[in-house]
Description:
Blueprint: H1 5-53, H2 59-69, E1 73-78, E2 81-86, E3 94-99, H3 105-117, E4 123-128, E5 137-143, H4 145-197, H5 213-268, H6 273-299, E6 310-313, H7 314-328, E7 334-338, E8 345-348, H8 350-371, E9 375-383, E10 387-394, H9 401-405, H10 422-433, E11 437-444, E12 447-455
Parallel strand pairs: 3-4, 7-9
Antiparallel strand pairs: 1-2, 1-5, 4-5, 6-8, 9-10, 10-12, 11-12
Helix pairs in contact: 1-2, 1-3, 1-4, 4-5, 5-6, 7-8, 8-10
Amino acid sequence: xxxxxxxxxxxxxxxxxxxxxxxxxxxxxxxxxxxxxxxxxxxxxxxxxxxxxxxxxxxxxxxxxxxxxxxxxxxxxxxxxxxxxxxxxxxxxxxxxxxxxxxxxxxxxxxxxxxxxxxxxxxxxxxxxxxxxxxxxxxxxxxxxxxxxxxxxxxxxxxxxxxxxxxxxxxxxxxxxxxxxxxxxxxxxxxxxxxxxxxxxxxxxxxxxxxxxxxxxxxxxxxxxxxxxxxxxxxxxxxxxxxxxxxxxxxxxxxxxxxxxxxxxxxxxxxxxxxxxxxxxxxxxxxxxxxxxxxxxxxxxxxxxxxxxxxxxxxxxxxxxxxxxxxxxxxxxxxxxxxxxxxxxxxxxxxxxxxxxxxxxxxxxxxxxxxxxxxxxxxxxxxxxxxxxxxxxxxxxxxxxxxxxxxxxxxxxxxxxxxxxxxxxxxxxxxxxxxxxxxxxxxxxxxxxxxxxxxxxxxxx
Length: 461
């Protein structure tokens, strides 16, 4: 109950209403005290006027007038003359004097709170203005115990009434919140749960019908999201089926091309000049086709596993990549420079980062080799407070416009003729699994630079 939206709203409403009632209680109790004292002044004035009308009243009647007024003494000033009209012995000396004629709100509140906090019965003098202009002023002497008792009684009644109002208000708001907010929200949650259980079922898509503008906007946003997600899931399923078919074709085609690649060795030994001239082109075409099939199969495999982080020396990874590239090619015109400081350790998955660097270096080597000129590939590392930055720079011809527009897109981002663009797509996916990103730093006639950002995170070593 307490963890629900309506339950917490009920508690907060009760607390806020009680707080508002307490803020109202303070000036109310001060006003009650003022009314009480003014009532005593008015009673005393009536009693004094009765005595002034007949000077022959006996002592018993005077005591009765004072008792009815609830005072000990009454002083009435008329025509600049101060006159003790009614009097009786007081049990204690006067402890304080309160003038109601010019008392401000702050003063009245302060005096009321002091009276509530002081349980001692004291004698006080109260000064006020007579009603109906029956004099200049009137003074009375009263004891504070009856005043405090009536103030406490009044305060308790106010607090009880406040509690009843708070609970009633909270219950009404509780019901209103459940009807206006909680019930529609539960309906939205129900649609989300049904859609999550069967996203292919169009009946699980929400139909906006809320009357509250904000809730209706949320329902419309959810409806749009569900429709887009349903279409995306259907397209993904079709692509998965297409990918399975392509993978099967690529697998069989790779086997066929591998066999054809073996026969090219004999063709190269032919004495026919035309055959010897065309054989290298045939070998290159078959090699590219095999490479495309292998790349397609690699990209079509299951999603990459989550990286296993550890302390890795990047310098050693770059050395392994350079050695492997030098083994698979006889082109000595492309020099791979390892500019990574040897002691530097980074936190990553060793095998996945090896594949990232290998794909970037291989793309750069192939781009330089395609120009027929010499070139260099430099792998370097620099470190910031939050991340490691791996830079792969080459002196190749730069990326064409089409490759830049479709960067990291499989089968569209190839920079060279016959390229599939899978290398960059796979590298970007692996880097993303590390929480980082692969970016194109710059490209142009003087070369291309790719930058890999690997965040250090909380577990950086």
